[in-house]
């Protein structure tokens, strides 16, 4: 079992930055792929970013490419999402995920095995 705990959400003005963190418990967490998804009110959950177990491959949704950066520190069992140039449309609950298939990138939520409780990000205009 893996437990994921997100932190770092909050309220920020458009153009600002936030860094989300996700701490993973469990000895095998460092072998898993990790990802971030988000869900805005009235919208479907969507893929944001993902990283393979060793950080060697990353992937991003087109809507965040060039503004968000996913990274991980396996020594700390933590994955990060650096969010720059934030826009009001980035407002959502952001969820950290763990994917037991750590060697590739899965963009579908159903392919991720563990989920955190979510952290709210609100971007004001």
Gross morphology is globular
Question: SSE order, as H and E?
Answer: EEEEEEEEEEE
- Strand fraction: over 45%
State the distance separating the first and last CA atoms. Answer: 40 Å
Class per helix and strand makeup? mainly beta
Number of strands: 11
Percent of residues in helical segments? under 10%
Radius of gyration: 13 Å
Number of helices: 0
Low-confidence runs of at least 5 consecutive residues: none
Mean pLDDT value: 96
The biggest sheet, with number of strands, parallel, antiparallel or mixed sense and barrel status, is: 7 strands, mixed
Task: Work out the oligomeric state of the chains in this entry.
Answer: single chain
Write the layout of secondary structure elements.
Blueprint: E1 4-7, E2 10-13, E3 18-24, E4 33-39, E5 46-51, E6 58-60, E7 68-73, E8 78-83, E9 92-99, E10 114-115, E11 119-124
Parallel strand pairs: 2-11
Antiparallel strand pairs: 1-3, 3-8, 4-5, 4-9, 5-6, 7-8, 9-10, 9-11
Describe it for me?
By secondary structure, the protein is mostly beta strands. Helix content is 0%, strand content 47%. It is globular, with a radius of gyration of 13 Å. The model has no long low-confidence stretch (mean pLDDT 96).
Features:
125 residues; globular; mainly beta; single chain; seven-stranded mixed β-sheet
